[in-house]
Fold:
Amino acid sequence: MFNNKKVNIFLLIIGIIIFIFLPRFVSGYWVRVITTIFMYAVISQGINLMSGYMGYLPFGNAMFFGVGAYVTAIGMSKGLSFLAVLPLAALTAILFSILFGLPVLRLRGHYFAIATIGMSGALLAVVQNATEITGGAMGTTLPIIDKSPEVTYNYFYLAMLALMVITTLTIYLVIKSKFGFGIRSIKANEEAANSMGINTTYHKVTAWAISALFTSIAGALYAYWMSFIGPDEVFDIMIAVNTIVIMLIGGAGSILGPIIGAFVISLLSEVVWSTFLEYHLAVLGITIIIIVFFVPKGITGTIADFIKKRELRLRKKVSV
Amino acid sequence: MYKVGENNIILTIKSLSKYFGALKAVDEVSFEVKRGEILGLIGPNGAGKTTIANVVTGTYPKTSGTVIFEDMDISNLKPYQIARKGLTRTFQVVKPLIGMTVGENVLVGSLYGRDKRNTDMKNASKRAREIIKLVGLESKKDSLVSDITLPDLKKMEFARVLAMEPEVLFLDEVMAGLNSTEVEEASILVKRVRREKELTIIYIEHIMKAVMGISDRIVVLHHGRKIVEGTPQEVVNNSAVIEAYLGKRYAKEVNNEG
Structure:
């Protein structure tokens, strides 16, 4: 947001430190709410990489969340430790993203978005019916951590915070790299990108694999945190819908957009929920429509425009 | 100065055809391009000029024929593979990377483009800056491509392909939409860059005047077929060319007078 790089890094470190110590000052309820916000920010970053930067909206991205959650549940029920099962969960999700990505990333625009919904639905059906492995539609349980709830919740709070920071830093570095220019070119004009020597298929599949990686780790942490998961819950299309809204409100194609969006939407829904107990979804929906109407570029995009305009005005004054 | 090599063929197009259903957009066209020359590819609207560029650079799959680039058959490769080998093009309708600045557009060309060269961020940025300076876009470097004029967009696209450091470059109607002063400036720029970068250029144009002053040799297309090939002088006096551009009756009159 500011032009000075050192100031930015300093502010970010201050922010991270505040969040590390925040659980000491707020109730357990808020610790859980903020953990969810971190989780949504991670999933939204994965969608931001695909859609905000590359122009491919992965409507079914919740499937990687579900894959991460289920591989963790199954692995841990077989006696593996969480840290041993985590790489397996991530690798499985990456494998799915490559297998699905090679055919469907040839589709453009809405067709890609719809195809990913179909895949997410297909995976859900498999998980619901492979009862012997997954526990079927009834869901499955994970071992519970043998510590007090407060300690456990703090542990997941910090783990989710770390995941959000690592995800954001990784995607930031990816975007600033040669590969980042490649995927931004694909969003801008795929035909031109191809004629400039960019292997578009390779870029698209790799970007989706990165997206799947972080989304599946979020799913793995979620499963361990909840210690019970059901297929309808972790493959829920609303996970993707919510995180797409978060990206749009925060600012698509901006590195802090998903984080800001996750806080704004989640805190907004907390307020709405406590004020309008019966109509909270309707009120929330209308509020989102109003925000999108007046802030089409998202919060970060609008702030950037404001700063640019002010600079132009200052420059004009100087030249006069 | 760089010399146009005698019989030094860099690109060979052999009985290349591209059909769209019953329409023969390009029909058994053959010609060769010498290293370092500017070859004008002309013809009335719909003659198949852009289709040849699209097939040779891989945008459209060919129907039949071969394209040999530096002893390699490239007619089955994808656009990005052909670009990496050193053969690239500009687009008749400019295709800027919207949402990026002029500098970033050129940087993408510099980062990707031809392979077997240093494309790390530092080198690529340096190369992009030099080329932006070469085409005279320094003052627009930080402008978004959506905020600049058409002549500047054309310069940007030219800079972007130069940053890819190709050996052979298709320029597809780069002068379209420019006024006469701008056409003059662009011609000078193309000639200068060809010399400095030792480029081979295939120059597609349907305005005869623009192509005559700049080309070493000219290939004339009509209804998807090659009708004449030769120096600008030979081409301009050829009755088939006059017929293609001005109609049969006018061609007869010209011949009678001559």
Notes: The longest helix of chain A spans residues 149-176. The mean pLDDT of chain A is 92. Chain A has one domain: 5-240.
